[in-house]
Amino acid sequence: MKKVFTLLLLFFAITTTALAQQKAFQVQVIGKGKPILLIPGYSCSGEVWAETVDQLKDRYECHVLTIAGFAGAPAIDAPILQTVKDEIIRYVKQKKLKKPELIGHSLGAFMSLWVSSEAPDLFGKVICVDGVPFISAMADPKITAESMKSSPYMNPKQVVKNFESLPAEGFIDRTALAMKAQVEDSLRARQIATWQFNSDRRTLGLSLVEISTTDLREQIATIKQPVLVLGSIYNTKENSQRILNEQYSKVRNKTIRVADSKHFIMYDQPQWFYAEIVAFLK
């Protein structure tokens, strides 16, 4: 009996160590200067920030993340985004980064809001590139996280099954065509589609459910630092401004700018984008 108990303890220790070693994101560090974390959007590699890093690396130490399960990075267990949030905070503490700035695109903007609202004294300025605190309420601000969780469309098992059933043949071509609604350049669209093809299907499903059922609109009131919101065109600039004002109403120190752009602003309007972020970070 004692041997069995010892073996169980050993198994538990090994399992716990394995779980602790799971990586919620990969990091590439480029440049020197004040630290800045760059978080890509849904299914994207950290390579999405390559040109942005070129603009910043002479003045900033750029910590470029690729979230687990996206673009070929090894997947982790659920809850995925919550684990990413916790590990970003832990990473900044362990690396002893002093008030790192945050730049996040889409899902990365959501993650930037999440970590900076949970640990407001740990981070510096925040730049949200076409991302919001509660994506499900963009069309209707009355929608709640609870109503989304009860929706049959947000059943995690079914959403994962839907992603896993997508045929590999023609996946990149179909996704690249769909991505033309989010970025002007066809080569960029194909690159984004390739990152999605190389992403773990389960991660694609579970992270979509997680972001769709997590509402940060009240929580972001704790953010102390300045926040720059860069939005794209949602039908009209006026509509974009209205939606972003609603979504970010609880942030005290914010600046909202709307680009003449699709979703990937850093690709569609690079010079406008660089000018905005450089001016904000000064």
Automatic annotation (TrEMBL):
Record's keyword annotation contains Transferase: no
Any one Gene Ontology molecular-function term assigned to this protein's record: hydrolase activity
Domain AB hydrolase-1 per the UniProt entry, residue ranges: 34-269
Range of residues in the leader sequence: 1-20
Keywords: Hydrolase, Signal
InterPro entries cross-referenced by the UniProt entry: AB_hydrolase_1, AB_hydrolase_fold, AB_hydrolase_sf
Protein's UniProt name: Alpha/beta hydrolase
The species this protein was found in: Pontibacter burrus
